[in-house]
Write a structure and sequence with these properties.
Length: 231
């Protein structure tokens, strides 16, 4: 598969993740009387990954996330030479998804971004969690997400079920960590909405690049040992 096709798949996949996942939070989470709430938002993020894994997994691997690309590279599953183009495509896809969401959301009278599903800590954490709590949460959640991805896509695992395990894993991660950081585990997702929220979201964005990449890198190292055929 050509690199351009892989990058196109990553762009559209990340576009869908931000529009579907963050869109559920911005448009539907608290909709009067029938809002989907935290559970609905968590499911939306999981479903975006699950649906894209079946749609584009055979083209690009369906990373949709710079941290996933880093973890797969360190785990020996992804060529280092494609890392930067993948990350660029993912970030641009995230911004494009957030742009479409902004156009839709701003079509309502009295619209205010009100966080715009951005990730934050301290006063911008949904539950008021500290920077330390947010940092630990994002590292650990991304670590576990990559362990799930690396394990589910191992050649010894049932291939057809990998998207289900990964999508449900991301759903569970959101159920745990939305109150802490609004759940990132994905720098592209964080960058897309922060670009439109601006201000505090941009100033806190560093954590949602650092922590997911650290967690993913640790998982890549760990699974390289765990999944090896050596006794």
């Amino acid at each position: 598969m050509s690199l351009s096709k892989k990058l196109g798949a990553e762009f559209v996949g990340t576009f869908w993740l931000v529009l579907g996942g963050c869109g559920s939070a911005v448009l539907a989470a608290a909709f009067p009387d029938v809002g989907i709430g935290l559970l609905g938002v968590a499911l939306a993020f999981g479903l975006t990954v699950l649906t894209m894994a079946y749609a584009i997994g055979h083209i690009s691997g369906c990373h949709l996330n710079p941290a996933v690309s880093v973890g797969l590279m360190i785990g020996g599953r992804f060529p280092a030479g494609e890392l930067v183009p993948y990350v660029v495509a993912q970030v641009l896809g995230g911004i494009a998804g957030a742009a479409v969401l902004y156009v839709i959301a701003s079509g309502q009278a009295g619209f205010e971004t009100a966080g715009f599903a951005s990730n934050g800590f301290g006063e911008h954490s949904p539950g008021g969690y500290t920077l330390t709590a947010a940092l630990v949460c994002e590292i650990v959640m991304t670590f576990m997400f990559l362990v799930i991805i690396l394990g589910a896509t191992d050649e010894r695992a049932p291939a057809a079920l990998a998207p289900v395990a990964i999508g449900l894993g991301l759903t569970l991660i959101h159920l745990i960590s939305i109150p802490v950081t609004n759940t990132s585990v994905n720098p592209a997702r964080s960058t897309g909405v922060a670009f439109f929220e601006g201000g505090w979201a941009i100033s806190q964005l560093w954590l949602f690049w650092l922590a997911p990449i650290v967690g993913a890198a640790l998982a890549g190292i760990f699974y390289k040992w765990l999944g090896s055929s050596d006794d």
